[in-house]
Amino acid sequence: MLRAGPSQEEIRRHNLGTLLRHVHLGGPTSRAELTNRMGLNRSTIMALTADLTAAGLVREELPRDTGRAGRPSLVVRPESARVYVLAFDVGVDRLVAARIGLGGVILDRREAVRPRGGFDMTEVVETLAGFARQMQRKVRPDTVCVGAAAALCGAVRKSDGVVRFAPNIGLEDAPFGEALSARLALGLPVSVGNDANLGALAEHTRGLGVGCRDLVYLHGDVGIGGGIIVNNQLLGGVAGYGGEVGHTVVNPDGRLCGCGSHGCLEAEVGERALLEHAGRSARGERGRDGIRAVVEAADKGDIIAQDALHRVGDWLGFGVANLVNIFNPEVVIFGGTLREIYLGSAAQVRSRLNTCTLAALRESLRLRTSALVDDATIVGAAELAFAQVLADPLEVLARMATRQTQAART
């Protein structure tokens, strides 16, 4: 039995989503350029942009002076101020909430220090929801929130967003997204993703990885996570736990890791290892400031700090070499605290790559630090939150607007 092809309505929904994605990721784009990119005729592009404009997702305007004769092609811009998502980031030391408009514009942002120690989910959820309420009070009446998502430093189950294991913040089998959604009371679910996976997504769509089909993103906090893009797709694994490169073993007889194993990449290269090697853990130094202090001291000639960076850089090189041999990426991007660690130990990393990877795999390899710096995870969370509206713009927009009206009345 032959399977029926897609209906005209399904094709229309797909084209609306594709056009909106081009504008969301690429910024203001002329109708002529959209025609070329999507392979559709001008009248179809005009109809699609008219539908999105009527829904308040985009607007059209005349371009600035092009210097060319003839009638200029209208430019399609995302309605960043009207359509937005709420994005959250739960790290070891900080909590971040942001309101991010269509097109990736950070419209508002809140951040708080999170004391280390036990993880009180009720307290964390209340802090993030409080930030969201503060930001919501400032929005215009005609705005609509089309999604919400959180990045979290742990293994997150894809099917329901439950945080299965987050040793660096002391969280296990926690329905974090469900709890935050209930506290926000906006009538929409909160998607949850691993911070490194979302960092990879952000770099691939808005950072150094734009145009790269295959990349590896390594994220440092207290521990180390990884996000892997293969053929333009985020590698999630069967349950969503893919990319836990911090728990690949590089030194079987090495340091004890929070996961219970020994010699994991996270244990040999993470914050604790670097600060202990540099003799600074006893001073109470930690976090981003502690790592930057070691790198700065090494730059100024501190032999102990230099040796500490050399040691962790050597293990980092082993870890990166394994990833390069397995995935053959075009670029490896270092984010979070690994930005500073890599910059201070690049020679060791490259030396290990030269001796531990196949020559053919490193011929076109680039090693770079994150272009999005500390915003990579929050930008990635926003892209996760935008996913539904980009897949079916008009239906999702209408549904979200109805939900939020009902939630406001309640």
Spans where pLDDT lies below 50 across 5 or more residues: none
Binned strand content: 15-25%
How many strand segments? 16
Order of helices and strands: HEHHEEEEEHEEEEHEHEEEHHHHEHHEHH
End-to-end Cα distance, whole Å, is: 49 Å
Structural class determined from secondary elements = alpha/beta
Strand order, biggest sheet?
Answer: 6-5-4-7-11
**Overall body shape:** globular
DSSP helix fraction: 40-55%
* Rg over C-alpha atoms, rounded to the nearest angstrom: 23 Å
For the largest beta-sheet, the strand count, sense and barrel status come to:
5 strands, mixed
Please tell me the overall pLDDT.
Answer: 91
- SS element count, helices: 14
Pfam family, one: ROK
Organism: Acrocarpospora phusangensis
GO molecular function: kinase activity
Family: Belongs to the ROK (NagC/XylR) family.
Structure overview:
With 410 residues, the protein is of the alpha/beta class. Helix content is 45%, strand content 20%. The protein contains 14 helices and 16 strands. The chain has helices at residues 8-26, 31-38, 42-54, 121-136, 176-184, 195-206, 265-269, 271-277, 287-299, 303-327, 338-356, 359-362, 376-391, 393-409, and strands at residues 29-30, 58-61, 75-78, 83-90, 94-101, 105-113, 144-152, 155-156, 163-166, 171-174, 191-194, 215-220, 224-230, 233-234, 331-336, 366-369. The strands form 4 sheets. It has a 5-stranded mixed beta sheet with strand order 6-5-4-7-11, sandwiched between helices. A hairpin with a 3-residue loop joins strand 12 and strand 13. Helix 4 (121-136) packs parallel to helix 5 (176-184) and helix 8 runs antiparallel to helix 10. The chain is globular, with a radius of gyration of 23 Å. The termini are far apart. The relative contact order is 0.12. The model has no long low-confidence stretch (mean pLDDT 91).
